[in-house]
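chain below, 186 aa
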Amino acid sequence: MNAEQAIDFESIFQYAPVGMCVSQNRIIRACNSDLANMFGYKKEQLLGASFLVLYPSPDEFERTGARITPIMNAKGYYSDERIMKRANQELFWCHVSGRGLHKEDPHAAGIWTFEDLSSKRPVSAELTPREREVAALLVEGKTSKLIARQIGLSPRTVEMHRAKLMKKFTASTSSELVHKLLGIMR
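prediction:
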């Protein structure tokens, strides 16, 4: 690349091989076609829309926003794998990474990437919003005690959700459950 050539950041954003968006207070202000296609929307439908449209439920939208705030305040960025929702209501696993642009208020403005994991990890059971939240934290390798602390439940309640997940996925051990959640065993 010639040093005199200008870098076209708009093209980089639009043609990135992952879904990308810029947000302000959890409102999508700019997005690329990959993001719109991944979620089954036209770009114009997402511009000005709340991230809420990408979540399976309003409760999950609120809890995720609250959960990531202290992490982004401490680190400046956030990344996880979670179940998201397409425009046609289909649920799918998605890797989400983001960085706040204002350290003092991580939701004020941010840049986010989304990677569709559905080809590697299908959503194969009907899960409640809380089960989806616990499942996402289990695949991160967190213990019931850590999950309980992170989402404000008792460890016993988390164990109850883990037991329900094990039954739904016909897993006999926690390790088998995590493997099934990751799509390693089908």
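The longest strand covers residues 91-100. The two ends are 46 Å apart (CA to CA).
thats it, cya
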